[in-house]
Specification:
The chain has one domain (7-230): Rossmann fold (3-Layer(aba) Sandwich), CATH 3.40.50. Helices cover 49% and strands 13% of the residues. It has nine helices and six strands, in the order βαβαβαβαβααβααα. The chain has a six-stranded parallel beta sheet, sandwiched between helices. α3 runs parallel beside α4 and α4 packs parallel to α6 (152-172). It is globular and about 45 Å long.
Length: 247
């Protein structure tokens, strides 16, 4: 599944699932731009990728801010070349009873989880159209497939990502660009630990495989979808959830 000669952007790429994807892409030969809101994290992540023999840069980016996205995309093109692969991974989570979700909480969730996917894709897709080749991989959530109590704002945002994926796949299917999404299940990341706290072990025991997923599990799916092996797959939801949800 060589990605040699390709330039990839991974949003939320400085930690957790995003960093695992960045590492896997670099091992497969891609030049990787790590985008994240964490300025220190992007420099660390990019430095580690380069130390391991890859080509990488780190960009501090708020994915809800078009101007920052456009500036970072120009930096990527100058340093690494036109963008051929985009992984929209940046996101936030949170639990809140529906009647306690404020306008501000709702708007922030959608601004990052859904608007960010729209903005990043719209800014970089021109490179893919010019090349007649591209891979867009959106990280959604198994919660958007099954529903999840006290997460209406989160589930709505990730459900929007799944719908966006299907619409864009249909629009670009004859342009050499595939658009797919990966909804992770229960994956061990800093965000998960922060969100669930001491409930992690109970979730593990309730899962069909009786283990937590690894960021590398999601990275492997993304590497496949970015590769030529997946050239005839688009508009697809590739569930990586240890059996939590099947369809």
């Amino acid at each position: 599944m060589s990605l040699t000669g390709k330039t990839a952007i991974v949003t939320g790429g400085a930690s957790g699932i995003g960093y695992a994807i960045s590492q896997r892409f670099a091992r497969e030969g891609a030049a990787v731009a790590v985008w994240d809101i964490d300025a220190t994290g992007v420099e660390r992540a990019a430095g580690e990728l380069e130390a391991a023999g890859g080509r990488a840069i780190g960009c501090r980016v708020d994915v809800s801010n078009r101007a920052q996205i456009e500036a970072a995309a120009e930096r990527v093109r100058a340093a690494l070349g036109p963008v051929g692969i985009l992984v929209n991974n940046a996101g936030i989570s949170g639990f809140k009873p529906f009647l306690e979700i404020t306008d501000e909480l709702w708007d922030r969730m959608l601004a990052i989880n859904l608007n960010g996917v729209f903005l990043c894709t719209q800014v970089v897709v021109a490179d893919m159209l010019a090349a007649g080749w591209g891979r867009i991989i959106n990280i959604s959530s198994s919660s958007a497939q099954s529903g999840s109590a006290r997460m209406a704002h989160y589930v709505a945002s990730k459900g929007g990502v799944i719908g966006f994926t299907k619409a864009l796949a249909a629009e670009f299917a004859d342009k050499g660009i595939t658009v797919n999404n990966v909804p992770p299940g229960f994956v061990d990341t800093p965000l998960l630990r922060t969100t669930l706290g001491d409930r992690v072990e109970a979730q593990i025991q309730a899962s069909p495989m009786k283990r937590v997923g690894r960021p590398e599990d999601i990275a492997a799916a993304c590497a496949f979808l970015a590769s030529e092996d997946a050239s005839y797959i688009t508009g697809h939801t590739l569930s990586v959830n240890g059996g939590r949800y099947s369809n």
